[in-house]
Design brief:
- This protein is of the alpha/beta class and about 230 residues long.
- It has two domains: about 1-80 and about 155-225, Rossmann fold; about 85-150, no CATH class.
- The protein is built from eight helices and ten strands.
- The chain has helices at about 40-50, 95-100, 110-120, 120-125, 135-145, 165-180, 190-200, 225-230; strands at about 1-10, 15-25, 30-35, 55-60, 65, 80, 155, 185-190, 200-205, 210-215.
- The strands form two sheets. The protein has a six-stranded mixed sheet with strand order 6-7-8-3-9-10, sandwiched between helices.
- A hairpin with a 2-residue loop joins β9 and β10 (about 210-215).
- α2 runs parallel beside α5.
- About 40% of the residues are buried.
């Protein structure tokens, strides 16, 4: 299974942000997307989900075209997305948020059991309003809700931003578990240490295109590419 993006061009009105993006994510591998602020990382995730129409280029999953689909159809094809800010339904309970996530796939009990096994803390808070959870618990819920779609590809936009180290470790463990299950994970992450711990491959974005992609095994914390493309 592979997600393939070729020549993707997209933007907002007259402003072009993505300028011919070529990208690939494979089953059972974590691909990190790195780059300075404003280079188009979040825009790229939105374009893959159909939330931002592409002007040209192709997006395919297992050979099936996704580009041009309405945004509500993309999750049915196997993509799930956890944006920055989580976008939970704050007044709804944890259980109700998960049920919303599972609507596309029919809310089967096995999927719910799976996500609560991955995030056992949520099982203890099923009746609690999502808006009253801690930041880390809200991030767990956002990921769990996306997993109720039973995705082949999970897109995560800086999921550990602003969280305390213990929560970061729990979320990273969950991401590793998804990798072991064969999910392709695309992760926007800015911390070099986290990338080297988690990723199999890193794609560096500059000015709306992927400038360089490398296997993590070929990288060290002081590698020149981090200074060149991320500024650290």
């Amino acid at each position: 299974m592979a997600l393939e993006v070729q020549g993707l061009i997209a933007g907002y009105g007259p402003v072009t942000v993505l300028r011919g993006v070529d990208f690939r994510a494979e089953a059972g591998r974590i691909t990190c997307l790195m780059g300075r602020n404003g280079v188009g990382k979040s825009t790229f995730l939105k374009a893959m989900m159909g939330l931002l129409p592409a002007d040209s280029g192709t997006i395919t999953l297992d050979g099936t075209s996704l580009h041009g689909l309405p945004a509500h159809e993309v999750p049915k094809r196997g993509l799930a997305y956890v944006p920055q800010g989580r976008r939970l339904f704050g007044p709804l309970s944890v259980a109700e948020n998960l049920a919303v996530g599972g609507l596309v796939q029919g809310n089967d009990a096995a999927t719910l059991t799976r996500v609560l096994t991955l995030f056992p803390r949520l099982r203890e808070r099923l009746d609690q309003a999502a808006g009253t959870l801690s930041g880390g618990e809200q991030q767990m819920l956002a990921i769990a809700r996306a997993l109720c779609l039973k995705p082949k590809v999970l897109l995560l936009d800086e999921p550990t931003e602003g969280l305390q180290p213990s929560m970061i470790a729990l979320i990273q463990d969950a991401i590793r578990s998804l990798k072991a299950e064969g999910v392709a994970v695309v992760l926007v992450e800015q911390r070099v240490e986290s990338v080297l711990k988690l990723a199999d491959r890193v794609a560096f974005m500059v000015a709306g295109r992927i400038e360089k992609a490398m296997e993590v095994k070929d990288l060290t914390p002081d590698a020149d590419v981090f200074r060149t493309y991320v500024g650290v």
